[in-house]
Structures are given as C-alpha cells and as structure tokens.
Amino acid sequence: MDESSLISYIEKNSREKLNFNCSMIIKSIGDDTAIFRDKNNILITSDTLTENTHFRTDYYSFSQIGAKALLVNISDIASMGGTPRFFILSLLVPDYLTEVHIQETIDGIIETAKKDKISLIGGNISKAREFSISITLLGDYSVKQRAAMRYSAEYDDLIFVSGNIGDAWLSYYIMENSEQIKEHAEDSYKIYKAGNSNKGNKSKTSGEYKAPKDTKSKNTLIQFIENYAKKNLIHPSRVRLGKILAANKIANSMTDISDGLYKDINNLLSGKDKNSGALIIADDIPLSDEFKNITKILNLKNTDILNNIISFGEDYELLWSTKRANEDKLLEIAKKEKIKISKIGSVVKYNTDENQNQGIDDIRYNNGTSSCSDTDLAANERTNERRTNERTRVNFIYKNKALVITPMTFKHVSS
C-alpha cells in the first residue's frame, strides 16, 4: 500500500466512523493543518509507542497495538476530568509490515476512538526501520467546571483507585514466560484432578486455586491463562468516571496509573507540604478474581506479586485523593456507573509519632532485614541515616505490618 492509498483508507474510515464534534471542525484531514473552534479550556497530550520498546507484535495483535496507542492518550485526558475530542495520528511504517497489518492497526485506532466519540483530524505517515505510532490528543473541559490536577492531595484525604490493579503486569509476565507457565499449568492440573478424585469430585479443588468451570484438560487450563493475558493487554477507558470526579469536585488530586502505583501515588501528594505522605494498605489493592486464581496456579509468592503490581504500571486506571466526607458519594457512583472503586489508603503526616506507632518508620528497602547484633549497630545507624535522607513519601502496610518492598524497574518489552 503506497502513502496516498493509505491516507485515503484512513480518511475514508475515519469520516465514516468518527463523525463527531462536527460543529467544532472548520477543516480537518486534507490541508496543512486542522482548524477547529472551541470556547472551553483545551487539554493536549501526546504519546508515542514504538515496537520492541512499548509492544511486540508476537504479544499484541495489530488491532490491539492501535487501540493501545490511542488509549494511553485517552487515559491522560480522563485523569484530568476532560472530554477527548480530536487526535492527530503519525505512523512510522517499516517495509516488513503488510497492508493487512497496517489496516488492522488503523481499525484498532478507529474503533477505540469511536467508543469515546473522538475525531481524527490529521497526521503524518513516514517510512522507518521500526513500527511506531505517535498520537497527539486534544480534549477540553467547560470553563464552568475544573480540571483535576496532580500534586494537590490534602492531609487526611482518602486514596481511591478504579478497576483492578496488576492485570497488565501479570499479562506481561505470562507472555514473557509462556513455556514455564505451561509446565506450571500442567502440574497444577494434575494436583487439581488428583484432589477431586480423592474427594469424590465434591470440592472445587484440593489445590490452592479454583479451576475454570469448563476445565476438561490441561490444555483448557493453559488456554484460560493465555486468554486472560491477551484480554488484559488492553485497558478500559475511564473518561466518564474522570469527568464525574472532576465535575462534582470529588477528586482533590488525580492521575492515571501508567508508571506504577508506587510512583504514581507520589504524583498525588502535595508539592507544597513536603511532610505529607501516603499510607497504602496493600491488602486493599483491588485484584481481579482471575488474577488471584492464576497467581495461585503459577505458585507465585505474595510479596513478589505485590512488588510487581506496585512497580509495573500500565493499568491506566484512575488514582485519586478525596475528602473523607466523599466516601459515600463514591460508593453511589460505583453502584450507578457499575465501576469498581476501591479505597486503598490515606494521606498522612509521615514523620509524626502517630505514624511511627503504625510502623511506617520501620519500612526497609532493598536490604530486607533489620540488624540487631552489637557488631551491626554502626552499620544499622548508617542505614537509618541514609533512609532518613532518602525517605519515601509512599509507604505500604501488608497484613498489619510494614511491607518491605523493593520498587522494581521493568524493561517492559524484550528486544
């Protein structure tokens, strides 16, 4: 497919399926720039996804690649409480992609834009050595409303999150370790069958996990795991929830979970009050039933699971702080909108005696264990001094104890 044919395909597809915001569009695809009119406050965001850095074509379908490229931008607008309106698309296309690959990518983008009524108004196409998609998304919010900002959480705010956390990491883990996972699944299936035989098939399982209802063979179990991973490579749009939280002035501070819960919670905390921190109850971090089931099948340790879901990111759920008085409102919103909303912690003064009694000052990073012998006292004092100087503002409690975590850095895609 040559460039003019590809542009024609994109233009025809977008005009047929993304015929939104027409009263605002003066000129879109076909001229040097797009022109639109608006009376609201404008939001602009941009992201680029590059093959072998942000995705691999043996993990994602091309339709999923296109969907993800737009969704990461939509998530930014949603986290501000805005409405996404228009996007500009740039494609860097290598020679090894076929016409079908490119069309599937475009279709994934178009179908995703259609769900949130976003119009494509222009872009660029170039050749490249690696496949890359760059999208600039424009949105707005009414001048009568307000945008939800980062770094504005207030002391004693509660911290909430939408949806489930960790599905993105587990999906990535499954894709990266497919052969080992097949072996684990086979072993788990043998335990499951043996347990049911011993108990006259009365129990769900004698092992630690609940097998899928239609489990008839180890291949079904493996398929269950693979289907979970493929499904959760793409996250939902939270535009509607973001608008509700912002319009009703419920979120004092809000962001999306792109870089990981550990890092993104820092984006909520006040830039002015350096003594404020977040206390997160790790037990309350929402996990899907499938997530819990599969991690048991794979016999993954709870502490390893927590380290990964706290660090990985790419869940693109909304994360916000709110006054305690708004908790009942959030429960009503969750019920009405049929969206899972979970309270996971609060904003605290992390250097107070009260927090020390909660075990916050006791949290250790990387060294993992505390020293108490005479020979280790000097080293322990140096460790404490370093921890004071490098103190984190985000602390986790797990099973009523300070959680020793090691925030991880992921190379999300293997080259």
Quick take:
The chain has 415 residues and is of the alpha+beta class. It is 38% helix and 20% strand.
Describe the structure.
By secondary structure, the protein is an alpha+beta fold. It has 2 domains: 3-141, 60s Ribosomal Protein L30, Chain: A (2-Layer Sandwich); 148-410, PurM-like C-terminal domain (Phosphoribosyl-aminoimidazole Synthetase, Chain A, domain 2, Alpha-Beta Complex). The protein contains 13 helices and 13 strands. It has helices at 3-17, 62-79, 99-115, 167-176, 178-198, 218-231, 239-247, 261-266, 289-297, 302-312, 327-337, 353-357, 377-389, and strands at residues 25-27, 35-36, 41-50, 83-93, 119-127, 132-141, 158-162, 253-256, 276-281, 318-322, 341-349, 394-398, 401-402. The strands form 3 sheets. A 7-stranded mixed beta sheet has the order 8-10-7-11-9-12-13. A 4-stranded mixed beta sheet has the order 3-6-4-5. A two-stranded antiparallel sheet has the order 1-2. β1 and β2 form a beta hairpin. The longest helix is centred in the middle third of the chain and has 21 residues, at 178-198. The radius of gyration is 24 Å and the shape is globular.
* Strand order of the biggest β-sheet: 8-10-7-11-9-12-13
The CATH C-level name of the largest domain is: Alpha Beta
CATH architecture of the largest domain: Alpha-Beta Complex
Mean pLDDT: 82
Largest sheet: 7 strands, mixed
Helix percent band:
25-40%
How many angstroms does the end-to-end distance come to?
A: 27 Å
Taken together, the total number of domains comes to 2
Please tally the helical runs, counting DSSP H or I stretches of 4 or more residues. Answer: 13
Total beta strands: 13
Oligomeric description of these chains: single chain
Q: Strand content of the residues, in percent?
A: 15-25%
The gross shape turns out to be: globular
Low-pLDDT regions: 200-207, 352-390
Rg, nearest Å: 24 Å
Task: Give the CATH H-level superfamily of the largest domain.
Answer: PurM-like C-terminal domain
Summing up helix and strand content along with how strands pair, one would put the structural category as alpha+beta
Order of helices and strands: HEEEHEHEEEHHHHEHEHHEHEHHEE
Topology-level CATH name of the largest domain: Phosphoribosyl-aminoimidazole Synthetase, Chain A, domain 2
